[in-house]
Amino acid sequence: MFGGARGLIAFGLAAIAAAAAFGSRPGQGRAAAQGSGLPEMMPAAGEAEGWRPDGDHQVFRGDDLFIYINGGADIYHEYGFREVAVQDYAGPGGRALSVEIFAMADPAAAFGMFTFKAGPRGRAVDVGAEGRLESYYLNFWAGRYVVTITGFDEEAATREGILAVARVLDRKIETAGERPALAGRLPADGLNPASVQFIRGPLGLNNIHVFFTDRRINFQDGIKGEYRNGARLLLLRTSGPRNAAALFRSMSEGFRTSARYRSFRALEGGHVEAVDTRGLTFAAAVRDDLVLVALGAGTSFARSLFERVR
Amino acid sequence: MTAKYGRREFVRKTAALGASLALGKSVLAAPGTDRIGAGPGGTAAAVDVAVAMGDDYGRAAARAVEMLGGMTGFVGRGAKVAVLANVQSRHPGSFTKGEILRSVLRLAKDAGAAEVACLSWQPVKQWEDTGLAAVVREAGAALKIFERDEALFRPIPVADGRALTEARVLTAFYDYDVFINMPITKDHAGNKFTGTMKNLMGLNSPANNRLFHQANWQTDPAAIAHLDQCIVDLNKAVRPALNVVDAAEFITTNGPFGPGELLKPRKVVAGVDRVAVDAYCCGLWGLRPEEIIMIARGSEQGLGRMDLSKVRVEEAAV
DSSP secondary structure string, B53-95? Predict the structure, then answer.
């Protein structure tokens, strides 16, 4: 299924080669790990039956995340990344897993990072504050930590190993966590809970939808949920009603003038609507410190969603 | 064979090369020139974007190249061939698959290449963990790993660079006659999509690549456009002879590193026109090329054609 990757995790590289590869002094990774606490959370040999650490762990802090994730590090920083520990595991039958423990700035950051990494099609699992198991990987969050466990095939035995390791980590992390308050403002009726995504900046927003390329969308954080027929509701929280009104005006102007949109109209009650070049409908409104945006909802369903925002 | 190069080893080796490097037998297009390593006569295939689909990804890669006229149209007898695969991450669907890489390496050798080498500044651990180091060895090619030392990269001015006026390309590429670009297409959290054009960051220095990410990316939406413009500018300075894209199984979420949801079109896509190839690939998971800034700007700025109705796309099953 995954070509050369299956069962080919190999460690035991010379320290010099590893240091050369990462541009660091031999042992620098271990020195940086001292006191971080994340490596100590990793399951020891035998804690997850049949699985044992394979090779040394690695720790990356701050901007060094670019060494590990390279071009994909920006979104982690947007959410509030602080540190990650990575440890490989060898298991029965030559199987392999990779465990990453991300320490974020706070539980809201961890929740957001989890919602970004976890796909909506996975199966909910009872680990951490929330967990989701996909075909070959699992994500869960607990407190300010996000854990990602990756297998290298889609076989049932590997998924069992992933779950076993996840349960050990769940016990060791010993912290729960609550969703940010904004998540509770989405209308509950008809919401697909696995679709909820918490965002903290433009990268997160662009991964939901690229609204405009010619204007800034200023917000503090946001939450997105999906409803029936694929309609999505996005709540963008600003620092107060004045800024929300300013953002609403800017977005309305964008819907009205951008070449991406057509059929703009201002509706009764202060809502606005437009349709993009793909035929996707957009509706927007403002309430208190929030700008509400419905995508693909149609006029009446959008209005219904807006009215039910808590 | 895996060789690791630091500054000292590189200086020794390049000193031995003597005239070829001093004369700048350039693999990389000087500003405004044609693509490099076109092979004997620079075959102009009737097909612009070749797409081969099937469960045997190695055969699909060979078929896609065949649809473009065959590897001998790109690799001349005795040529030295450099290959750039994506080994950014070992998570499934995030790196170029071994079967596809193996197929291209063998095709290049069968075309009469004197040397076929994968060049990379990614750690050798990535190559080992993905299994690609073994693939390179088995194919009789060389794997050359370079330290992330700026002294190993050559400054290249970018003519008409709008955000990037100077790239820093791995100097070792200049030892080669033909450059084959082998990305995996996939999601990217920064700019939604990665393919042939973005893959060239793999031969640009990490320090220079960091310039593509603006310091104010958290507040300025233009920062994303800056990243894409830098990628377009880099592609003005470097033009592969051939692009062979792993579009077989790839992540559509949490890219470029993964893990993420896997899409499995079972396709290998090949072509010379990077913009057209990327325009085709982004459509595989519902993206529109005009909405991907680097594709749109690549088209606007003369790197290729985004409108697939104006290029010849040919698909075949294997």
Answer: ESS-HHHHHHHHHHHTT-GGGT--TT-EEEEEE--S--STTSS
